[in-house]
Amino acid sequence: MAYNDELVNRVRERLSMEENIEVEEKKMFSGLSFLVNGKMCISISHNNLMCRYNAELENEVAERKGFLPMIMKGKQLKGYCYVEPIGFQKPDDFEYWIKICLDYNAIAKAAKKK
User: Fold this and answer.
1) Most buried pick, 10, 19, 34, 101, via CB within 10 A?
2) pTM above threshold 0.90
């Protein structure tokens, strides 16, 4: 699995600043995912972020620099995207992506246990 260790540390450090959350790191989606309170929140795949956010924000996030839609089985998966490094290099941009992922995580449903 290939992922950018520097980006992993950046996300890890940022999530550690949050209160009242439990963070688990898990290798999945061809990278490293951060599960917050048992739910997939944000992942690092190669040099990109993979974000999970409220699908109602789709039009807003699609306008952001670095946005790449997530395509599964030929269809765009709303509420998920990849973000290229140009889209999160600046601290304010990085914070935007972390915030929308954490905001959605608070209301997202956990995956069913197998």
Assistant:
1) 101
2) yes
CA distance 52 to 106: 12
Per-residue pLDDT tens digits for 61-94: 999 999 999 999 999 999 999 999 999 999 999 9
* Domain covering 5-105, topology: Aspartate Aminotransferase, domain 1 (3.90.1150)
Neighbouring-strand partners of residue 25: 34
Compute the C-alpha angle 66/35/60, nearest 5°.
30
Phi-psi region of 79 (alpha: psi -120 to 50; beta: other; left: phi over 0): left
Closest CA to 70 of 59, 78, 62: 78
